[in-house]
Amino acid sequence: MSRLIEAFVLSTVLVLTSVPYAAAEPMQLVVNGQTRSFVLERPAAPGPRPTIIHLHAAGGSGAREAQSDLGRLAPQAGFAAVFPDGRAARWNHLPPGKESAQ
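User: That's the sequence. What structure does it adopt?
Assistant: Structure tokens below.
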């Protein structure tokens, strides 16, 4: 699980430094062969920015969380906020091999 998180964070940093500005950008990347989607909120000014990765609650979504105060505050305050979607609207907190079939 930690490798998945590391890969997601690294991929997000690469996206933040290589994609031109657009507010509330729905994006996707592939991690270990799995397509992962997220919403990115960031300021218009170019360059590296402090970044917060906000995980939604069970049953939630990144798009819904991006509409929160944090999603609105991030671009105004000069930092980026990433709102990823969990698989099946949940986060896998179990070690490899201990996940449920669902």
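The two ends are 17 Å apart (CA to CA).
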